[in-house]
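Encode chain A's predicted structure.
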Amino acid sequence: MTVVEEKFSKKFDEAATQPKYRGAYDMDDAGDKGMAFVEAKFKDTKAYWLVDGIEDRVYSAKFFAYGGKVSVAIGETLCSMVKGLTVDEACSLKGEDVEAFLRDEPEVPAVPESKQKAFANVEELLKIVQQEYPAAKAVAEASASINKDDVKAASFAELSMAEQAWLGLSKEDQITQINMVLDEKVRPALMADGGNVQVLDVVEGEKIMIQYQGACGSCGSSLGSTLSFMEQALRKDIYNELIVVPNM
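Encoded structure for chain A:
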């Protein structure tokens, strides 16, 4: 009785015996990179994808396979092929595309006919990936929103006690403090030249809306040196992020 030797391509043997993408990602990996995490399983293969939710593009992929060397080669090749594609592009791949990728010669199958049916699993696995992606993207977006709030809270915690106190004041009290600094360091010079300045509003603790009065309204320096001097005085004595905006 003659035993027919089953022949595999060199590309297949390399993928099956030297996989680079075997492994797994988890939610922490996705969170560290700001990605959506997609996990899918069909029969003996599990796929783990990190996807950029802005472009819906596959950033990286890993796999585990438990069905022997054919499953390993398919998982390895699929990871290589989907990287850089959008989710829709990646999930449109078919088993025949993976098999063709593994061929050494275009006309010579990568695996024996008895192993060809394993490639049908590719499309089923990708269907599950496509179904799971919208929920994974929503989770990533929610997580990113929470992280932004955490960053804002951390930034506030890093402010000096004086800065925290300033931002915690009511708008009326903020205007009172601004006027105290202006009375001491700015208004005497303005009034000596026949002008003055009125504080109209404070927006979010950082933007001070003012109205020049008298001679200051027509003075060329009101948008130059005078404005700069006023802003620097307020930043030094109150809060370093203050911006003074004249009402023109």
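The chain has two domains: 10-152, 165-246.
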